[in-house]
Amino acid sequence: MKRRQFLQGSAFFTVVAATSGLLSACGGSTNDGGPGEFVFPQGIASGDPKDNSVVFWARIVRRNGAIAAATIAVRLEVSATQDFSALAAQANLTATADYDFTVRAKVTQLKPDTVYYYRFVAGSDVSVVAQTKTAPLASASNSQVRFAWFTCQDWSVNHWQAMSLLAQENLDFVVHVGDYIYETVGASFQTGGAEPAHQPITLPDGLAHPGGGVYANTVNDYRTLYRTYKTDARLQSIHHKFPVIAIWDDHEFSDDCWQDHQVYTNQNKQETARRRSATQAWAEYTPIDFGDLSFDLNNSSYQNIRIYRDFRFGQLVHLVMTDERLYRDDHIVSEQSVAQQAGHDPVNGDDSIGARYFVPRATLLQMEAQETAKLGRPPSILGTTQTQWWKDTLKNSDATWKVWGNEIMLNRMWADLSPPALGIPAPYNQLYVINCDSWDGYPSHKAELLSYLNTQNIKNVVAITGDLHAFQCGVVRANPADPGSAPVLVDFLAAGISSQSFYNYIKSGAAVVNPLLGALVQTPQIFDSLLKGFNPDFAYVDHDAQGYASATVTSDSIVVVFNKVKTLAADKSAPPQPLLKRTRITLAKGSSTPQIEDNI
């Protein structure tokens, strides 16, 4: 078997080719360890499926913790049959403390559109058997693609029963659009309690968070979070059944981050070492195809990794995954400037409201013009190189449906509080951009991408999105400020698995903007109705929700189902029957009018 090692000969990433014939299963151990010496506490996983390859992942440790620094010999076995009577591929790997005893291997020369079974062997101990599936050839005339996507799984809040529902689905793959972990424990937004299965996490090197609790600071802290999150059996069941295509958002490093800066306070402190630690732990614990991408621990920059990439699933689906944190410019409205105008602490204070949330649109446009003059270009989310890659990839795609794996909201979400009938006094009676950490907060860059889709006549584009902790479906136009401009894509936004809903965040923060806003967010229904009135391109909204989304794609349509789950019971237990309701949204090929069927 051909074999390559990455990271200057380290054991981080291995590539092996499947055999043209069939290997006999070894049946033996990898070393002298007796039965029960090794365990796989985080389960096993696969990811980044191509038409001829898949990446496989595991973490292996000694049961009693003995000789923690010693390496562990591990064997990956891949078979087309559940009994492993013959192997399609095998790889001898080494788990080391350098990478927290995680291993990953890419197996190439697999057959397209094929289910494979896999397991890992350490000593005399064998992991659970899991399954994965390769993608069909890009030229294949496939009749259907089914996938789901999920996001925002905060261990410290609510429950993860939505994962049980997701694992029961019949899917080709699953996408994670970010916030696989939350870097904070016990922060002020992590309130309301968590199910008993999720006990509090202790971060070994955690630092005090200005908003309460602690936040991850070192690679050991971030590893602790991944180790803990991945022990949940429901999350493991998803990884054991489907290949997962993952991208990060902010909480894999720091809430609302940009590049290597955290924004817990107005200082926007640069933390390169912390960013690199977060990146390393993500790379260690995510089955991503570094055979085609890049990750270099010897590069001292915070941009020592590239994770934006694309996937083809026959003629039907071209999935384009973007990185919307590592290359983004600072939020356009400076927290320090807002603090200074309000007489607040410009360094240690938190003026996210006014800078990143509930920003007057006139202020946003004024500051964008100033920042554009400084940078010589409009402030960007994707960065220059990734933007060009995104354009080229979509322009050159011949797939029926172009699916953008997009972390943050593309839908326009403004609040026009200027009408006298609302009774909002000056200076609060303005047009607000509600969330400037989303695409709305970078209006020229957003318009650049959307107008490109329009001028290049790129059709049947949909975005699958997370981050907001809400369900949304909306039409996104070439010029979001012009309701008469051409519709260019539909944004399907999935609620978080467990995180507090966007409505709850807004309700608690409305009084900070103005006490009179309380009446506008008195109930979720009032809030949703107002937002749809302010933003008529919303086809569906539910801003008080947890759950996930699934999609069925054919040559004629994409059908998305929003799966909303119940919250914790009064005794803080997770609901054994978690489904609250399903909403089905159908978008026909060539259409920009989603059809809504609620409570199906």
From TrEMBL:
Protein keywords: Signal
Protein's UniProt name: PhoD-like phosphatase family protein
All copies of domain Phospholipase D N-terminal, residue ranges: 42-134
Organism of this sequence: Collimonas fungivorans
InterPro entries cross-referenced by the UniProt entry: Metallo-depent_PP-like, PhoD-like_MPP, PhoD-like_sf, PhoD_N, Phospholipid_Metab_Enz
Residues annotated as domain PhoD-like phosphatase metallophosphatase: 147-558
Span of the signal peptide: 1-25
SUPFAM superfamilies found in the cross-reference section: Metallo-dependent phosphatases
